[in-house]
Amino acid sequence: MSLPARLEAILYLKGRPVSLQELASLVGLSESETEQGMLILIAGYAQRDTSLEINQSNGRYSLQLRPGLGELVRDLLPVNLSTATLRTLATVALKKRILQSDLVDLRGSGAYDHIKELVNQNFIERKRQSEGRSYWITLSEKFHRTFSVLPDLGGGSEPPQAA
Fold it and tell me: Residue 162 has what pLDDT?
């Protein structure tokens, strides 16, 4: 996958402004190589007619909706969740099952509040790990009903077993 595509994925999953240093660390490249990738990504967004844009402010980059589209998107959402909470939910949906600690690593410490809200609204379920101190986060039946997504009925959904 290209560097700009990897950077775009990081910005989407983080859902918050990310420094060039953090981006470089996450892609395993120098800051100058990462900055070149960001310039390509920014140029790509500038050339397309898309609802998203890359914002650079105070040395940090973020992927966000273009101004004026927030109300349109909010009116279309079937639930009342913040954009950041929806991104956390999307991360869980992509992973199917994820440790809370890994989710917080991906989304930042704000994910604790998102998880609490998503559990309270019954979009995710949290179960303590049999070994370890974290929790397994999975999608609930309400998530599948609300977003019309069928649960994965195939195998492979069990957590890895300790050796």
Answer: 42
